[in-house]
Amino acid sequence: MYAKLLIACCVCAVASAAPGYLDGISYAAPAYAPITHAIAAPVAQVVRAEPVDPNPAYSYSYGVNDPSTGDHKDAQETLQNGVVHGSYSLVEPDGHLRKVTYTADRVNGFNAVVERTGNAHAAPVAVAHAPIAIAPHPWR
Description:
This protein has 140 residues and is mainly beta. 11% of the residues lie in helices and 33% in strands. Strands 1-2-3-4-5 form a 5-stranded antiparallel β-sheet, with no helix packed on it. Strand 2 and strand 3 form a beta hairpin. The chain is flat and about 110 Å long. This is Cuticle protein. One of its GO terms (molecular function) is structural constituent of cuticle. Keywords: Cuticle, Signal. One of its GO terms (cellular component) is extracellular space.
């Protein structure tokens, strides 16, 4: 019995050691495809001189007045002759009106004047009610 098992194992070993299809020994170096790099041709850049305004000017303003949310603010700003003049105002959470007036230029930099006017009002107190306790139905 052991002899038959030994012979079967030897036959399997010889069969698996046989060279397979196209498994010949080769001593040549593997052939690789040549490495090529595609380099794009340089593109000539078109340089155009943009027109420059030596004395730019602008002006804008906006405002919000929403009584349902209590959002009240506005802003204005103008630039003329290299000097920026502007102001903005808002209602702070305590009820005061804050108004900031500013000026900015290359010589003096940014200068702001802040005014706070109006009367403060008490912030509304949030009332937290205790949850209603509902007893579960008794088990029968």
